[in-house]
Fold each of these.
Amino acid sequence: MFFVFPSGGLAAIGQKRLTHQAAILVLTFVVITAQFAFGEKSPLQIGQSQNPASVVRSLVISGNDSFSEAQIRSLMRTDVWGTYDETVLKQDFDAIVRFYHEAGFPFARVPEEKLAVKQFGDGVYIRFEIDEGIIGKITLAGNTKTRDAVILRELLFDVGDVYTEADKEESEQILRRKRYIGDPGIEAHWDAFTQTVSVHVTVKDLWTLLGALEPNFNSQGGYFLARVRESNLSGTGHATQVSYERISEIGERTRSLFRGKYELPRLFNSHWNFDGEYTQERIGDSWRVLLERPQYSLRSRWSARFHLLEAIDTLSWFEGATRTDTFERHRRGASGRIRRYFGNRQQQTYIGLWATAARATYELVEKKASSTAALRNRDIKRFGITVGRQHVAYHKTRFLRRMGQTENFFIGSQYGLSLGHASPLYGADREESYAELALGNGWTRGQRLLGTTTIAINTNFTSRIERSIIEARTTLFYTDVFNTGDIYTLEDGFRENGPFDFHQTFVAQFKTAMQFGWHGESQVILGAATGLRGYAYREFNGEKMMLLRLESRTVFGGTVFRKIDEALAAVATFCARPFTNSPVSLGLVLSGTAFADIGYIWNGKQTFNIGEPKRSVGFGLRSSFSQVGGTGIILIECAFPLDSPASTGLSPTLFYGLERAF
């Protein structure tokens, strides 16, 4: 049989065959090169250098919900197309478990019963499962009043979730912020019978019904006639307050008012919080409503806040420690913001939108002397954007701002920039822009030296900068100066260390406030109201001020003070019999103080003069009930003003009251 081809046909067919063979060779080369690049062996190599029965043909990983398969495989030397080695595989499992433990999964493991290794003639097939540490049970202890569900809903984990140290630490911080819970603790252990993690949560219910226990007054004035506050209503975590208040201040007209307040956390079992307040007084009624979804956890991705307000109050203008003008201020406002967070628990970036509408009018009701007061009615409507970044961590400590309870001291950094604009197009009284920069930082050096700094700068501008405010504050704490250790805890009270014991802390704080372009519209005050002890509430006024406060605090402990606390607890238990049959623990903690303050105040027409300080020195007694929720620091201080214009001698000023400590 003969075949006849057209001219050139054989050459064409031969060329096609050569092209096809070349393509196969190139493809084979690419596959082999790619396998080399990823550390794998090719089937050609396996056939030449290995026994096919010992080659890993399949590697299946399951249970790794928190990390990708690529991350797990990168920790292993065993891989597909490699040689199976039982010893190497066990070393791989050790590396995986070590990786999980370092990442905060203390109960992660690779169980042997979930390992399957099948050997066939064509190779080895491996399948294993990672147990990241599943929570099988959560138990509670110590909550005699607070309902179990109220505590469990605050935890960042539930039965069936993976247990992590980060969730545990942040859950403790969330519980610690509750005014009705003291010193929460979370412990976890491995239950070999159920092959799960058992979590045990311990709390201490604080006494939360306050009335006469919290008189809020001081030697410069004050308020309190009748007040009842419950911070944990029927163990639900709700807070309510009803009060009749009589507010007075030296040189001011006494005000009497009724006030009702209700706080509803976790609205409809969500992360939304409701806070409402209604005030009735002679000059008019006021109310405010706050609906907020905070960044509940550092792993939360968004937050929101909406606020409504209608209020009427009085505003006084002071010059030379004398009230010159009294205004009746009417305010009406609404504001809202939404933020979106990106990142992880430690490093976060956020962006947000905000809007505010605020109307304020002033009516002069009394004028005692000529002054520079020139308050302006405003109708502000702004829209803006906020961007920021935060690095968040906390350090557990005691005896800084509270007395006895464990505190979360912020360490890290936060900074944010807000830009806004107001225009008559959407109802503002004028067109202007607004900018605000806020910076915050906290740090520790070892366990005893701690510091925090905040700076806020805001400005209003049109074609030029018109009004600006700069505020800054930095505080240093040197705690446990003599390294005496923890002398008091909520669980055990005062430690056994003889009749007398002590704990020393040194505090230094510098703060400043400066206003530019606000002449006649706002003023800066220096006096007892801003922390300059020994002087009148509003002794000095201007546009700029700075203040340095130094204080040494000695917390007293030992058997003597334990007996004093036990005696007061017995009295409190007897007085509380109509309300509860349970014993009442107060946790009285006493501290002696010695302090020195120095401040400066000036304005735009007067340059700063370092030779004109406002100084004071003194001593005092601080106390608090560490096992009563929401109490502040009860102060009795004797201060000696060294530069008072009203006194030529060294005359002491006595201050007593309930104040928040710096």
Note: The first helix runs from residue 9 to 37.
Amino acid sequence: MSEIANRFVHQAKQDETPGADEYEKPEFGFVKTRFPVERFDHRKGLRSLQVHQTIASHDGRMWCATPSGLACLDGINIFMFDRKHGLISHGLRTLAIDTDNNLWIGTDVGIEVLDISSLIPRRLWSSEIGTVNTIDILGSYGLIGSSNGLFIWGGDQSITLATESPLAHATIKSIKVNSPDQAWIIGPQIGLQLFNISSQVSKPIRVNHIIGQPTTLCRGPDSHMLVGGINGLVLVDNTGAIDRKFDAEIDVDALLYYEDMLWVGGGKLLSRMRIENDSIDLIDTIQTDISVLHLTADNFENIWISTGDQALLRMGRMRHTLEKGLETDIGSIMCIRQTEGGLLIGGSDGMTTETNFVRLPGMTVWDILKDEFGKYWIATDAGLYCTVNPNFTIPYRHNESPVVSAPNRALTFHKGEIYISSIRGLAKIEYDGVKEILSDKNQSLGYVYSLHDGADGALWIATLGNGVFRLSDGNVKRFDLGETDNHSNAYAFADDGLKNIYIAHGSSITKIDPSGNYAKLIESDAAIAAWTLKYLEGDRLVAGSSNGLVIYDAGDGSIRHRLSGNFDDVPWEFTTSRSLEILDGKTVYCGLGSGLRIVNLDELEETGLKPRAEFAYARWKGTTATNIGQDFVVKAGRWFVEIGLKTCWFLDNCEMRFILSGFDARWSDWSEAGKLTFNSLPAGDYSLDVEVRSPIAGKGPKCRILNLAVE
């Protein structure tokens, strides 16, 4: 791949026939991948477009400080809390979690400390000290920065104003407690200060000449502190000496040092940087036109982005699974083929070879082959073309065969010969021309969508509307898949090297053993089970569908992993049977309507987490229930109960199923994870169990939600 990443693109010269157009050198090479981003806004229950800060509590819930109150995300629900729930102010600015899992809130009027062990937070104590901008707690000690100075918390339900000037009455904007005896403090009047907590003496640290006015703090590597300013950022050691710097004209608003990577929000950008031996270097820009106010990471390795104009964004852990994409500039990716020299990639606006870029005006490239003489055979929607050299692409014998002049779909080598499929049938290239391949009934095969040179020595042929055919010993015969499937649409093939063949057709994937016996392995809910299919060692089937990448167990057909959803509002939709290629048994190249994505299967397999359901709340109507924990007792009669669940799962969207033992004979069907409702159950004892499954991580354990006695 290094050859592709480093290559220079040759110019192609136009010739008299429709062929390669002259093309300037495009942007080409390894660039950043658009990471998966999920937005939490009013459509999901978050009432404000402005989120000042987000933090994770010890139980995995995410809490947001907004101008409209406190938001809580539990993996299924978003709850909003404000003054009607007991908060003194709904204008929230900053958050912190102490060792007892109490939530500290800095508001427009002071500080509130909440017990968040139940659904609705309960205020433990508060202090009206003016606008609180920042809180940092280390163990049983904390510092609070307000518009009226620096306050110190020593473990009880009270705070005291720092006595040392100039911190006593200055506006404090950012605090980081570095150790039980040392803290870093930023304010507009005081700049950067290194504060000794026990003596309450501060020392000014001069950084303004490099980064301008300091704005924010972040813990960095080796107990160092990262300091952002209106003109860049610096790394300082625990004495205040400047270690490294990035003195660019960027107004830094938020910093996060995580996984040896520095995330920087500022100047309407979200960027990543790396701290090198003697410098801080920019890697790439992840988001543009975004006002970043705060950055944090959770236990799932998600990055949470609190913004001033786009509510809350979650940059998923699956960014580890996605490798940097190859910017091809050829539109939708229709085919990907591996050769000894690199990749051949065809798209809706041209193709790339191992060393060149070729634009084919008005033609979509559906497939590419390279023969032993170095010529490229190109299946396009304008027929078959041949590229003799990078500057010369010509139509191939269009006047000899309607098969090759019609819109082509797939190419393959079979027993040393090139076979071409098109919407008009199947043909092969012979020494003296093109020969159409007919069925054993001497009929055209119709719309031939895909070809596969099988390990069993046969050529497998997939058609749209005419089922599956098999070419063996010079004879083409229909492969019987059953009466209902013999005239269905077939899309793709895969084989495991042991002469087992897998066929994606209609909404099914069928397995055919070496004796010709077949059985449906997978029945998909989608109209098309897979556009493209590959077998991978470890008894896995990798399928590209209209809604993402699915990895099945080739033995029982169960789903191991699924990558789907939107990436920058662009869906994962595979294009053709040739739009999937696997390198080194772990790197999956995905040809999508939105471009090329690269998935690292090792990272996907190492997710290692499983979702689990937990009890969130029970709301009763028509009766009063008593309970001890999650054991409920209610009288028989006419009543209704809504059971809320939480998962604290922030990798993808989960499905659930449940069983109410004592009433249900079997588990429910899988459905979107959410609340459950029951009403007027007869007298008896019941237990509610729930299982949750994630497309990425699979099924979690059975979880007891509650026990219910109806008397």
Note: Helices lie at 2-5, 208-211, 402-405, 601-605.
